Amino acid sequence: MRPDSADVELRGERVRLRRVRDDDIAELTAKVNAPEVARWWGSYTEQEMRAEVNDPGITACWTVEVDGQVGGLVEVTEDNEPDYRNVALDLFIAAPLHGRGLGADALRAILRHMFEQRGHHRATIDPAVENERAIRSYARVGFRPVGVLRRAERGPDGHWRDALLMDLLAEELR
User: 122: part of which helix (H) or strand (E)?
Assistant: First the structure.
């Protein structure tokens, strides 16, 4: 995995976030390919997952651990330009763990780190408009809808779909 990413271990109330290790790839691939997750992320081979977590455009990737097991992935892209310091986030949580608040817990831990340690003041996330579960989870953390990004991403079915741009200022983190 990339040597400079996610070297800081973070903890939420119920999750541990640690740098992605090579031995996580098979499990992350299996979890992203579950129908409930692949609907939003698409399907991956292990080679594609390895490329995803090593994408030079992504600043950091953390494995989300729940009870010592791989439970998902969080990706962060930082804009470190002094006048635009913000982060963009993306994540998935394994389908059997949905509905337990673990994604929100992981986001809170990462956002505290990004705001308090990395000096960012704002974060964005852009779930598919149809991904109501994710939107509710992000709202619990404090994200607010900004607007709809029309035809923002190609879904796994090959059709373009809209995304809901949401943002959060540091002082709004819940």
Answer: strand 122-125
CA 90 vs. chain centroid, Å, equals 3
pLDDT at 5 over 50: no
**Cα(118)–Cα(102) distance, rounded to whole angstroms?**
23
Instruction: Express each pLDDT in 141-154 by its tens digit.
Output: 999 999 999 999 99
Q: Report which secondary-structure segment, H or E, holds 73.
A: strand 69-79
Residue-range domain boundaries for the chain: 10-172
Average pLDDT value for the chain = 93
Distance separating alpha carbons of residues 24 and 11, to the nearest angstrom: 18
- CATH class of the region 10-172: alpha beta
Q: Which of 63, 52, 59, 56 is nearest to 77 (CA)?
A: 59
DSSP for residue 94? -
pTM listed for this prediction: 0.91
Kindly state the tokens that stand for 94: 């394994």
The one-letter amino acid code at 154 reads: R
* Strand-pair category, 15-19 with 86-93: unpaired
pLDDT score of 53 more than 90: yes
